Amino acid sequence: MPTDSAHDFLRSRRSIRRFKPDPIPDSVIERILTTATYTPSAHNRQPWRFVVIKSADVRPQLAKALIDKMRLDMQAEGALETEIEKRVASSIRRIDEAPVIIILCRDVTDVRINTPEENIMNIQSTALAGLQLLLAAHAEGLGGNWICWPLYAQEATRSALDLPETWEPQAIFLIGYSADTPKEKQLKPLSSITLYLNS
Length: 199
Ligand SMILES: Cc1cc2nc3c(=O)[nH]c(=O)nc-3n(C[C@H](O)[C@H](O)[C@H](O)COP(=O)(O)O)c2cc1C
Description:
Helix content is 45%, strand content 15%. A four-stranded antiparallel sheet has the order 1-2-4-3, with helices on both faces. It has one domain: NADH Oxidase (3-Layer(aba) Sandwich). The chain is an alpha+beta fold. The chain binds flavin mononucleotide. The site of flavin mononucleotide (FMN) has 9 residues, from strand 3.
């Protein structure tokens, strides 16, 4: 791919939050996940794990795990009941409407040694796989959105879906063909976030 096109491709990825109901072929999901596995990782430990949800069956369990915690957290913050119920309804809608849901986990045992720094590297590596997954979806003409919900309900998510004990949920990706038009994004000027020390 010519350099300019590669940059245009990378810059044109956006978070997509509304989807057409069109199904995504299994081969496309497989290709996206395979590309995500090419992500760099500390010590090449490849700590990422993926949980793919397509059918309607497990969505209510997932939604309940996430929403019970969301309610508790919002109540603790003093949110109004109407505000809580609005957020809950919109979250359930998003979980129901996404053609494919991918939960990104890290395997907590995939560290060289159990130190804080190595654990951070395990999480950093997993997060990079999340970006690669979004870009791979973009390459397929799909939209996706990284959502942090499971971070607030890691154990509830793990047990609701009966995931392996060492898999720690980090994020949820809602993936589908876009029915969204994201607003233009305001970027911080490069000059305000970069220091050149070579002058
Ligand atoms: C770590 C992380 C957590 C995020 N959590 C959420 C979320 O909970 N809900 C949501 O709608 N978007 C979430 N996003 C998406 C961001 O809001 C989005 O990337 C940002 O606004 C920039 O927009 P863009 O992705 O279209 O460039 C998250 C993104 C990241 C990287």
